[in-house]
Design brief:
Helix content: 40-55%
Strand content: 15-25%
Radius of gyration: 28 Å
Mean pLDDT: 73
Number of strands: 11
Shape: elongated
Distance between the termini: 57 Å
Number of helices: 13
Low-confidence stretches: 1-10, 42-59, 61-104, 345-371, 385-396
Structural class: alpha+beta
């Protein structure tokens, strides 16, 4: 009875405030640390796209909902809120998409970017060797690199014997023939094409394993020629004419471009072989570590299928059969000269800045302070959580990984 009567007694106001403060403070510290981690910690499986199509962890999903709610609250304040739910509203991007489409046509900057990749002048991370294989009429090498942001990037060099750059150019562009040998391509259609520049916008639907939905690609592509070297650029572009559906899932971040040129054959040392340098990356909406494992396991099997398809294409062309519309577009190329490519190139080739040592030292000291702050915050959060060792281990693990990236 004394305990019950004491429970109903009116406590002092100061005691109430103290108890409330002690109860709320750990929660707000946890929230602030969570926001800090959500903004600054970017593991490889995270993707910050705003269309909701990419794979993400709960921390990133909470961040998106938080940003949406903040925008909704600001709209209310300035009198522009609508009647939809704050965290489930869909904003109208029609005007911004239209403006983006106007600038999405492949141009000389796309050519220069591919040329810099070919000439190793893009100042990106170093390439890590993945595999080196060979077959009867082809040889293959592949590399990978992991940029600070974005999905893993892949580079490959394939040399095909007894093939010309022109036949390979047409072969990779010919979607009608690709449907006969590429098991992953379910559908291909042309949305736009320009008879002057040869540029195209196509829609692909690619098959994925049963546990994943198929993927949809809206791809812009164009070919430039420099002294019988062909720079073929394909990348994802926005489109307001094709509605975005739940299935197949739209892949927005897509880049797959290659350089095709004649090289010496290992058989007779003549220019009867053809080299294809491919640069590829995309965000398929699959955790990147899982995607990397899948690429390692299936890369050579997929590449080996290309050579028989190429030989079949050579025989098909030898019959003088009418060319498909895609193959005809592949023969419309924009001719460029060396001056065009080297006009605005960055020629430092990844050289080190003379003051880089001093910069690293200063950065190291600053990062040391930041790491200490992160770990202290993690200790504070862990001590306020009464969820056992597993929860504390998760907090320390996240903090340690985040600190390691500073």
């Amino acid at each position: 009875m004394a305990l019950i009567s004491g429970f109903f007694e009116k406590p002092p106001i100061g005691g109430v405030m103290f108890e409330l403060t002690m109860f709320v403070l750990p929660i707000w510290v946890s929230v602030l640390v969570g926001i800090l981690v959500g903004w600054a910690w970017k593991p490889k499986w995270a993707n910050l796209s705003l269309d909701g199509e990419s794979s993400q962890k709960p921390v990133m999903a909470v961040k998106r909902q938080w940003l949406t709610c903040v925008r909704w609250i600001s709209d209310i304040i300035i009198g522009r809120a609508n009647s939809s739910s704050p965290c489930g509203s869909t904003e109208n991007y029609s005007s911004s998409v239209t403006e983006t489409e106007k600038s999405s046509v492949l141009g000389v900057d796309d050519l220069k970017h591919l040329h810099n990749l070919v000439e190793k002048k893009d100042n990106g991370p170093s390439w890590i060797p993945m595999m080196k294989k060979s077959a009867k009429n082809m040889s293959y090498q592949a590399w990978r690199r992991d940029p600070e942001t974005g999905p893993p990037q892949y580079c490959s060099r394939t040399v095909y014997e007894d093939a010309t750059p022109e036949i390979l150019r047409d072969f990779f562009w010919d979607d009608e023939f690709r449907l006969t040998w590429d098991d992953m391509l379910a559908n291909a259609e042309v949305l736009e094409k320009c008879a002057t520049t040869g540029s195209m916008v196509v829609r692909w639907v690619r098959k994925f394993p049963f546990f994943c939905s198929d993927r949809e690609y809206i791809i812009g592509r164009r070919i430039w020629e420099l002294n019988q070297t062909y720079y073929c650029v394909t990348k994802g572009v926005p489109s307001s004419t094709v509605p975005r559906l739940g299935k197949p899932r739209r892949v927005d971040l897509y880049y797959s471009s290659w350089c095709i040129r004649a090289v010496q054959s290992e058989k007779d040392q003549q220019l009867t072989a053809c080299e294809v340098l491919l640069f590829h990356h995309e965000d398929m909406g699959i955790p990147w570590e899982i995607a990397k494992h899948g690429v390692r396991q299936g890369m050579w099997g997929a590449v080996r299928k290309i050579d028989p398809a190429l030989r079949a294409y050579q025989k098909h062309r030898a019959t003088q059969a009418p060319l498909s519309s895609s193959a005809l577009m592949a023969q419309i190329n924009t001719k460029v000269d060396v001056a065009t490519l080297e006009n605005t190139e960055d020629t430092d080739g990844g050289s080190l800045d003379p003051n880089s040592d001093q910069q690293v030292t200063t950065t190291g000291k600053r990062n040391g302070i930041l790491k200490m702050g992160v770990m202290v915050g993690a200790v504070a959060v862990a001590l306020t959580l009464d969820r056992g060792l597993l929860t504390k281990a998760v907090v320390f693990g996240v903090a340690r990984r985040f600190a390691g990236r500073l």
